[in-house]
Amino acid sequence: MRASSVPAPPTRRLLAAAGSTAYRRLARPALWRLDAERAHHATLVAADLLGRVAPTRALVAATGYAVPPARPVDLLGLRFDHRIGLAAGMDKDGRAVPTWVALGLGHVELGTVTARAQPGNPRPRMVRLPESAAVINRMGFNNEGVHALARRLRDARRAGLVRIPVGVSIGKSKVTPVEEAVPDYLASVAALDGLADYLAVNVSSPNTPGLRSLQDAEPLRALLTAVVRAAGDVPVLVKLAPDLTRSALEEAVGVGLDAGVAGFVATNTTLARGGVAPGEMALANGQTGGLSGAPLTVRAREVVGQVRSLTDLPLIGVGGVMTGADAAALVDAGADLVQLYTGLVYAGPALVAEAVAATIGDARWG
Predict the structure, then answer these.
(1) Is 173 a catalytic residue?
(2) What does the DSSP assignment read for 204-251?
(3) pTM beyond 0.85
(4) CATH numeric code, 3-365
(5) pLDDT (tens digit, 9 = 90+) per residue, 97-147?
(6) Which of 169, 188, 204, 205 is catalytic?
(7) Where are the domains of the chain?
């Protein structure tokens, strides 16, 4: 975009406000007539369709005018236009990369993807908690398998539609025993060769039986050492759970450093139910799975701060980012990049511009 075509700050504010109002008054009520998973699917279908042809990508990109210019961030050997990206879980199969680019995101993390296609856990498996601005999910890494994602990402790159860093979160296939996790992860690494700008090793989802046991020191050491070696020049990060104790977190970070990881992602969803509104506590306590959204805001910030105190390696902060102020607080706690997911469900795409503005310290754009 040429500098002369960039709208002045008041125009950007109007565009951001209009987008936010349209989402809250029109799109969100329509989506929320559906159950949470159907709404998620409908959003992905729409994003996929919008990204298929240039005119609709241009229409989506009009919302990007609301994203203020920011100083690029150089990290992991990559250049990010700004600090705000999309977290894993929104687009597991890489269906809508061109649309995420058009929305003005600075990076995207696809997945979590597994070596084998799998349906995930039985439905229903996603519940909204509107009073708490939260979501509980027990999806179980439902995805079409790493080869399907690799094919889409390869096609998007060949078409010149990938103009921001694209990471991929990799996890263990449910049918693979924990003791055979290493070759399972390595199959995904091999399939993504030359396609992912970075890899995030997900050992912290609460929705795959036995997965979190891979955060224990010895299994984690074996897994990360193997993935780092197989990935070659591709940066490997490890995604940590918010439910780790301080000592377990220190151990996990230490193992990651010994294994040669390039950085960390903090955090994933939580098994805790603290911060849920009283009127929704009974519902929340009756649901298995990971909690995301506003109840995770403070804990995610704490874990980011703890990880930052242990290492200077690149750190992606994710969890409970519902406002621009939340994004800025994660950066202040030590995050180099910030990812959004549940906040987009509640605030809509305008949250991207708000978070970018907050993390560059320019209140004029809010």
Answers:
(1) no
(2) --TTSTTGGGGGSHHHHHHHHHHHHHHHTTS-EEEEE-TT--HHHHHH
(3) yes
(4) 3.20.20.70
(5) 998 988 889 999 999 999 999 999 999 999 999 999 999 999 999 999 999
(6) 205
(7) 3-365
